[in-house]
Amino acid sequence: MRSLKKIFSKPRSEPTTIQEVPVTEVESTGKPGKLGEVEPIYVKSMELNSLADVQEAADELRAGNIIILDISSLMNHDPQELKQAIDQLKGICQGIGGDMGRLTETKVIATPKYISLQFRKPAT
């Protein structure tokens, strides 16, 4: 019983000492902005006309934007080049931790890191 009293009893008050906390000055390195402000993520639409357009799409993904690619002109013009462009874009998405998927027959979506696509399972 005495051990319970020790646990639940108020401790005897001891004189408190105040310690000073050292102050450190911090130099601002970024633009002044609102506390907790988040940079916007854009959903950008692009046409994939050649392999050169893959680099532009990759730059947008690295900047954190979501890309919707219209592949219809390359699909009609050169299917082999389209396959190569899609493979390159898939590799870039995987390399940055993003995701990629088909929206329609002529539209593809590519996402940056932290944005995943959830694909619908086909009905059986």
UniProtKB/TrEMBL annotation:
Q: Which Gene3D superfamilies match?
A: SepF-like protein
Region: Disordered; residue ranges are 1-32
Q: Which Pfam families match?
A: SepF
Q: This chain belongs to which protein, by name? A: Cell division protein SepF
State the species of origin. Answer: Hadarchaeum yellowstonense
